[in-house]
Amino acid sequence: MSKQLKLSFLRAARTFGVFKLFRYLTQSQLRILCYHGGAIGDESEYNGKLFFSRQTFEQRMKWLREKGFNVVSLDEAVESAGGKRPAPPLATVITFDDGWYSTRSELLPVLDKLEMPSTLYLCTSHVLEGTPVATVTTRYIIWKSPLKSVALSGYTPAIDGQYDLSSGAGREELAKKVAAWIEGFGADNTAAVDALERFAKDLAVPAGELQLGTRRFQYMTGDELRELPAQRCAVELHGHVHHYPVGDPAALKDDLRQCSGAIQSLGLPVPKHYCYPSGSFDADAAGTLGELGVVSATTCIPGLISKAENEQVYFLPRFLDGRDVEMLEFEAEMSGFSEFLRRVTGRAASPA
C-alpha cells in the first residue's frame, strides 16, 4: 500500500469514528512511546528518528492530553501491567533514549509545561567522554556535504584516500573510519571538535553550519542529568556502550553494571529499568536482567501491552516516533487501530 493510499484510508477511518472506537476498546492497554533527541538545527532532516522537532513533539503531547491519554511514570506502568496496581485509562509512558543535550533543551520543557513524567534511558560512556558523538556527527557531515567525491590526506593511513560520496557504501566506509579516528581522542573535547571541524572543512561544510557550539551532537553533563528528577524525568539504563552483546550474558552484565555505577556516581537513584540499544536483544536477556535486579526492559517493536508478567516484562513493546510518522499515523497508532490492522494482516510482531 502506498503512503498516500494508507493516509487516505486512515483519514476515512478517523472521520467515521474508528479511532475513537479503538481508543475506547483498548483503554485498559498500556502504550510506551520512544523518542531520542530534539532538533536544534536541521538534525531532524538528517535523521528524523534520532532528532525530533520541538513543535511536532508538542503537537503530539497536546493531542494525547486532548484525547484523554494519561501519561504515567514507567514505574507506575510496569506495576500496572504486572497487576500490582490499577492503571488509569489510556495509560501512556514517554521515554527518551541515549541522553542527548537536545532532549533536555528542546523536548523536556514541553513535558515540564504539561506536567507529564518521562524516562530517560541513558548511555553512560558518552556522558563521561563529554565530546560530540563521533558516529552521529561524522555521518551528519557527510550528509551535509555537497561533494560527490573527496580525496583526504594527512589524517591516518587508514583514512587517507579517495571516497565516492555518491554511493551509500562509500559514505559508510568513510564515516566508520573517521568516527573510529575521532573516538581515539577519548575525552579530549578540544581535539575531537578540532578534528570534526577539519573533516567538515575538507567536505565543504562550513563550521558555521556544523554548529558544534550548540551541543547538538553531545550528551548532557552530569550536572544537567542531576536536574532531571526535578523535571519528572527518571534516569534509567541504556548500557554503558550503545551495543547489546547478543549471545554473551557476561558482557551484558558487565555493561549494565558499568552503566548503573556511572548513574549512581552522579547521585541519581539506583536504575532498575533497561532499554535495548538499537532494539537488539536475544532469548537470554530475561534471565540475565532478572539476575541483575532489573525489573523491565523495552524493545523497539510497536504494540499495546495488556499485561506483563514473568518474562514478558523484559520484552515490552514500544512505538518509535519520528519525522517520517505523519500525525494521522501517530493518531492511528496511539488509538490502537494500527495494532489491530497489524494483527488482522498477520504483520504484528511479538517482542518475546
TrEMBL record:
Keyword Signal (UniProt): yes
PANTHER family listed in its UniProt record: POLY-BETA-1,6-N-ACETYL-D-GLUCOSAMINE N-DEACETYLASE, PTHR34216
The NodB homology domain, residue ranges: 90-129, 222-294
Cell compartments where the protein resides: Secreted
Protein name, per record: Polysaccharide deacetylase family protein
A Pfam family hit: Polysacc_deac_1
InterPro entries for this protein: Glyco_hydro/deAcase_b/a-brl, NODB_dom, Polysacch_Deacetylase
Chief location category: secreted
SUPFAM superfamilies, per database record: Glycoside hydrolase/deacetylase
The keyword Lipid biosynthesis appears for this protein: no
Keywords, in A-Z order: Signal
